[in-house]
Design goal:
By secondary structure, the protein is α/β, with parallel strands linked by helices. Helices cover 33% and strands 25% of the residues. It is built from 14 helices and 18 strands. It has a 9-stranded mixed sheet with strand order 2-1-3-4-9-8-7-5-6, sandwiched between helices. It has a 5-stranded parallel sheet with strand order 12-11-10-13-14, with helices on both faces. Strands 15, 16, 17 and 18 form a 4-stranded mixed sheet that branches. Helix 5 crosses helix 6 and helix 8 runs antiparallel to helix 9. It is globular and about 80 Å long.
Length: 519
C-alpha cells in the first residue's frame, strides 16, 4: 500500500468499523487489525499512526483483550478511544477502577489543557460516552486534558506521542468528533489525504493486470453493486480475458434476468455467460419451508451450476491453448474485518458474500479487488468507473433472493405473485423519490390467507407485507416512516393488480429485535 495508513487495533468495540469509515471520509486510508497483532506486523504497514479502539471488557478482567505493549513504543502517534484509554493507563502504570456511576449516552466534556488533539475545538463539547470504568490515577508523564463532572475524559503524554479520550469521537453524537480525528490523523500523524477513488482504480487495475498476467479469470455475477463493480474493475485490467457467469436461480426479481444481461453486456461491455437454471432451482426447493434449508439448497445448487458452467469455459479455453486460473469475488472490507475479529473464529464471512465452497479441483486463485472497501466506497468507485445508477444505487438483495421473502414453500406460482407485488413496491418507492433514502424496500408473501371483498364478491387470498428500513450498514435498522400516500398507493395497486393478494400490511419492526429480512 503506497498511501498514508492509520492502523486501528480492534479490542472488540461495536464502533471499530465506524472509526475506519470516518477516517476514510477525509481520504486517509485506514486498516483494522485484531488487537493481538504483533508490533512488527503493524510496523510492516509503515503506519502514520495507531488508534486503539473501544471494547466491551474491563482491563482487569481475566479474559480482557490484550495487545502487545510494544505498540505504545513504536515511535508513531497513538490515540486511545474509551477502552483504548484504559488500556494505556493500565499498562503504563496508572490505575483503572470501576466507576461509581456508569456514563452512557450524551455527556459534557470540558477541555482543561491545550493539546494538538483538541486544537480548534470548543472548550466545552457534547460527546457520546459508553463506559463503566474510569482512570483514577494517570501514569507518569501524562497530564489531564479533558474531564466530565465525574470522570477523566482526555489524557496526553506528548513526549511519547500518546493521546487518549474516554468518549467516542467516531459516532455522530459527538459533534466535533470528525474534527478531533482529523487533528490526530492530519496534524499529529501527518497523514496524506491520498485515499481517493481515482488512486484506488489506477492502483487496483495495475495490480490485477500484474497479478493475472496473460491468464484468464471467471466471476460470479449477481447483478448487485459489489460483484458488478468487481467485474468492471477486473475487466478494465484484463478485458475479454474475464468471463462473467450470471445464474437465474428462479427467485430473482421481475425481469431481472434479462435486465442484468442487457446492462452488463451493452452498458458495461462485460463478457457474460447467462444460465437460466430456474426450473432446476425450483425443483430442488419443492417442499422446503425451513428458511435455513432454503439458503443451503440455493447455495449448494448455485455451486453446482457454477461448477458446470465453469468447466465448459475451462474446456473451451484449454482447446485454444489458454487456461483459467483466477476467480473474481466481490468480498468487502467488513467481511475481512469480521473474519479476523478480536472476538475469534465464530465471526466468519457470510456465505452469500462470495462463491464459497467451490469444488477443490477447480484450483482457482482469488482476485478480491474490493476487499479494502466499505459499501459506500464501492459505490463511489462505481460512479468513477462510469457505471449506471441503477446498478450503483441498487438496494441490497439477499443471496437466496425471493426465496426468503416467500414464507413457506417456494413454488413458481408464488414466485410470480411476489415478483409482481415487489415490483410495485420498488416502482412506487422510486416515484416518491425515496429509493436512495431507504436501505431496503420490498414485499414479502405471507403464508396467511384472509377474507376480502372485491367487486361485490367474497375473496379468500394471500396477505402481502411491505417492508422498508433505514440503516447505515444493515447491522441495525429502523423501520422507515413512509408517507401515508405512498403506502396507500402501494396497497391499492397490489390488491388491484396482483391476482392472489387481497390484503397488504406494513412491517414497523426495527432491527433489533427483528431482522431486516423475514427469514
Amino acid at each position: 500500500m503506497d498511501t498514508s495508513t492509520i492502523v486501528i487495533l480492534d479490542f472488540g468495540s461495536q464502533y471499530t468499523q465506524l472509526i475506519a469509515r470516518r477516517i476514510r471520509e477525509f481520504n486517509v486510508f485506514s486498516v483494522v487489525l485484531p488487537c493481538t497483532t504483533p508490533p512488527e506486523k503493524v510496523k510492516a504497514l509503515n503506519p502514520k499512526g495507531v488508534i486503539l479502539s473501544g471494547g466491551p471488557c474491563s482491563v482487569y478482567d481475566a479474559d480482557a483483550p490484550e495487545a502487545d505493549a510494544g505498540v505504545l513504543a513504536m515511535g508513531v502517534p497513538v490515540l486511545g478511544i474509551c477502552y483504548g484509554l484504559q488500556y494505556i493507563v493500565h499498562h503504563l502504570g496508572g490505575k483503572v477502577v470501576g466507576a461509581a456511576a456508569r456514563e452512557y449516552g450524551h455527556a459534557e466534556v470540558t477541555v482543561v489543557a491545550e493539546t494538538p488533539l483538541f486544537r480548534g475545538l470548543p472548550g466545552t463539547m457534547d460527546v457520546w460516552m459508553s463506559h463503566a470504568d474510569h482512570a483514577e490515577e494517570l501514569p507518569e508523564g501524562f497530564e489531564l486534558t479533558a474531564k466530565t463532572s465525574n470522570a477523566v475524559a482526555g489524557i496526553a503524554d506528548e513526549a511519547r506521542k500518546i493521546w487518549a479520550v474516554q468518549f467516542h469521537p467516531e459516532v455522530a453524537h459527538t459533534r466535533q468528533g470528525m474534527e478531533l480525528l482529523k487533528n490526530f490523523c492530519l496534524d499529529i500523524c501527518g497523514a496524506e489525504q491520498d485515499w481517493t477513488p481515482e488512486h484506488f482504480i489506477q492502483s487496483t487495475v495495475e495490480r490485477v493486470r500484474a497479478q493475472v498476467g496473460t491468464g484468464h479469470a471467471i466471476c460470479g455475477l449477481s447483478g448487485g453493486v459489489d460483484s458488478s463493480v468487481a467485474a468492471v474493475l477486473v475487466a478494465k485490467a484484463i478485458g475479454e480475458r474475464l468471463t462473467c457467469i450470471f445464474v437465474n436461480n428462479g427467485v430473482l426479481r421481475k425481469d431481472e434476468f434479462l435486465k442484468v444481461q442487457t446492462t452488463m453486456r451493452e452498458q458495461l461491455g462485460l463478457n457474460v455467460v447467462a444460465v437460466d437454471s430456474s426450473e432446476r432451482f425450483l425443483a430442488k426447493l419443492a417442499g422446503v419451508t425451513d428458511p435455513e434449508q432454503k439458503r443451503k439448497v440455493i447455495g449448494n445448487e448455485f455451486i453446482a451450476v457454477f461448477d458446470d458452467e465453469a468447466k465448459k469455459i475451462f474446456e473451451a479455453e484449454k482447446s485454444s491453448g489458454e487456461e483459467i486460473a483466477w476467480l473474481v469475488q466481490g468480498t468487502l472490507y467488513p467481511d475481512v474485518i469480521e473474519s479476523s475479529s478480536v472476538h475469534g473464529p465464530s465471526h466468519t464471512i457470510k456465505s452469500h458474500h462470495n462463491v464459497g465452497g467451490l469444488p477443490a479441483d477447480m484450483k482457482l486463485k482469488l482476485i478480491e479487488p474490493l476487499r479494502d472497501l466499505f459499501k459506500d466506497e464501492v459505490r463511489r468507485i462505481g460512479r468513477d468507473l462510469g457505471m449506471p445508477d441503477d446498478i450503483i444505487e441498487r438496494q441490497p438483495f439477499p443471496g437466496p433472493g425471493l426465496a426468503v421473502r416467500i414464507l413457506g414453500e417456494v413454488t413458481a406460482e408464488r414466485v410470480a405473485i411476489l415478483q409482481e407485488a415487489d415490483q410495485i413496491v420498488v416502482d412506487e418507492i422510486k416515484k416518491a423519490g425515496l429509493y436512495r433514502k431507504v436501505w431496503q424496500s420490498f414485499a414479502v408473501l405471507l403464508p396467511v390467507k384472509s377474507v376480502g371483498v372485491m367487486g361485490d364478491q367474497r375473496t379468500y387470498a394471500n396477505t402481502c407485507a411491505v417492508r422498508a428500513v433505514e440503516s447505515e450498514d444493515g447491522m441495525t435498522a429502523d423501520w422507515a416512516p413512509l408517507p401515508y400516500e405512498v403506502l396507500r398507493t402501494i396497497s391499492s395497486r397490489i390488491v388491484s393488480e396482483v391476482r392472489g393478494i387481497n390484503r397488504v400490511v406494513y412491517d414497523i419492526t426495527s432491527k433489533p429485535p427483528g431482522t431486516i429480512e423475514w427469514e
